[in-house]
Amino acid sequence: MNLSVFAQVLWSSIAFSTFYVLLSVAFALYLKITKVWNFTQAGLFSVGYFFIYGAHRIFALPAWLSIAAAILLVAALAMAIEHFGFRTLRRRRSPTLVYFILSFMIAEFLIYFVTLLAGAQPQSLSASIFVPSTPVFGVLVTSWDGGALLTVAVLLLALLALSRTTIGRKMVAVADNASLAELFRIRPERIYLATAALSAVLIVAAAWLFGTKSVAVPASSLDLIFIAVISCILGGVGSLAGAAVAAVVLSILKGFSIFIVPSIWQNALVYYALVLVVVFFPNGVRLPPRWPSWLPALRPAPIEPKVAQK
Amino acid sequence: MSDVLPGPALKVERLNKRFGGVVVAKDLRLTIPRGRVTGIIGPNGAGKSTLFNIIAGFVTPDAGRIELDGRDITRLPMYRRAQSGVSRTWQHVRLFPSLSVFDNLVLGARDYKGASAVSALFRPPWVRRQMEELGARADALLVRIGLSEKRNEPTTNLSYGQQKRVGLARALMNDGSYLLLDEPLSGVDGKNYEVILDLIRQEVAAGRGICVIEHNISFMTEMANDLLFLFNGQIEAQGLPQDILADARIRRIYFGGET
Amino acid sequence: MTYLAELGILVAIWTILAASFNIIIGFAGLFVIAHPLFFACGAYGAVILGGVFGLPFAVSVAAAAAIAVVLSLAFSVPAARVSGDYLLIASAGFLLGSLQAIRNVDWLGAASGLDGPAIFTGPERTLWGLLTCWICALIVLLLARWIVGSHFGRAVIAMRDDETALASLGRNPMTIKIVLITVGAACASLGGSLYAGYFQYVSPDQFEMLAATTMLAMVIVGGIGSTYGPLAGAIIMTALPQLVSFFDLPPAWLAPVQGMIFTGIVIVFLFVRPGGLLGSTTRIGQSKVRAQ
Q: For the whole model, what pTM was predicted?
């Protein structure tokens, strides 16, 4: 393997990682704030994906409209699931197993529903996958790559900005300690609904990016959600940045693994990787570099209590 | 000082444990000799229950050594310590709600052969015999705690005080040398109080080493041979109950303000 | 007539699978969702050992069960250091990874599967199959009942109530879990061997997540941790999709509609009757109190 091939694979993997990053952050966000492993996001992904497919490819609505409508639909669905589903389980103090069963069943239900409506044929979200590319320092960069990276950057920065706002701080508070937050007149349930809506945006964005690069069947989301799960665990449960970084790393590993592992074994490898990660790195991988101080802090600074003057 | 007494004891040495920013044990030293009652008092959150959790094996200390009759049990998991004869009660009782009182007691026996794989599939005569003996012991204990008529009731039907009696009896089924009782009298009054008190007296007389965490001062004055005051992970004072309780500094920490 | 009888065979086999799954997630409380792998072990074992090596059926059943038991240890041993949530995720990954692996291995039949030898032969084969499968199903159910009702069962129920308290009494919860997982895996393997023995064909598609979902659905509907619940669950969840086939749906719709019915029923049960048909009405996993 020479340098130009290496650079090309590296670039493509990073570009590919964009939808993994968005899905991982969506999953991590929900997990961090509500402490729920929300597998329904696989179902939501399929709903969003094939809604866009129907609106954009079949009814020829403009892309932006299809995406916006999909976001509304998926957000409404996500909030309904949170409100009628997880909230009921919370009230009953159900054991974790029940959360798992419910979220998994809802995901599968949605996927079956989408299969019923859209069929099991692989579909893409754009008319043609072929995009013009330009060589940059010997690496072929496509306009899709640029658009995808820009989308992820914008969305992640928006999340960062959100964490500074009032509602963002409330979300962080609820993530830390929901019962304590209640004492400060923060309503966890409202925050959970906001989280559901927020993750819906990320999920639909991920669906759009995936569909404009590749093809999917309704059941594809299950594989994708597993990668999101691995990223969350590797990056450390509770860390959005960790999940994002882990998603990129996984994408790169996946990209290069094609040189070592035949493509038919790729899927099996991903699943077994999940098993190894869970058994050996349940607390994530601790990386030495600390967040550079000259970059904006990931977490809002805690409010220092003013010491009363005697 | 009780650690000068010769003879077998449950010893804790150089115990250190912190949870995040809270130090619950700092170079803690403690001896629970047989045939005596060692009492532990201290403000809430001082780490008393955690100390029991560490001795029983539920929590791993950061450093330290636990010795049972001269044998190092620091590395043993919880169930092995119970099998070695260290049994405990829980502050919140923790009976098994799906089982009857009798079943709860029977499970307390150290050598409950019924839990082995062999007994799971076959029922050899020696298992059957042992289960009968255990049943007889459980029934005898039920008589001692005065709850024979509740034998087959689910534990959820019992009052709190009755549950505490059952919890104590379950720990006694272990028939081990050492008993760790975590607030056996909290929330208990009247007949339940008397029954539990009697039980503790009988067990001390039988030669068991009993360590009791309690807030009940009259109990400590009456029953404890040695009283320890636990505060901020350290034993601030140790000695006879009347001396400790008369100490002004201790009273200030424990009861707060001027007394 | 054969149709109904074969349906009966399927119900019997699903009962075995659901009951063995119940032993693992209901009794032991271990979220090992890789149960279809034990099923596959028995099925592939019967086909390969019987078809390729020509071993008599009883021997291949026993050998396959032994392999399943060893496989189950791969879950029960790390279960001590891995919390419930993670165990579920890890076992899901293991199931899906292994199915992909089977698809890539030729001597396991890859994606197209393997044909197996006929175990039940002759004009009365359906009847023999029906009889054998139901006898086995009854054995597994009685085994579950025996486990729960025995002295061992007392410890199992206690472990489900409060594992820490049980450990503080001197019982090692790990031993109990290992026994339960082993028994569950062996029974599932038996179900797989019977399945392959009658239907004479195995392929990875039969052991996919849908199989795990089906078993889970049967256990939930019947009542997690209840002894006869799996039987009720198996009957309902096998009968209902069959009703769907009477509606003359286009074939492409059959699978998704069945899937929606399964998952929909579980979702409804989780909200309306979490204890299942035969379990408690309020809590998952709480069994009725045993009195001696």
A: 0.83
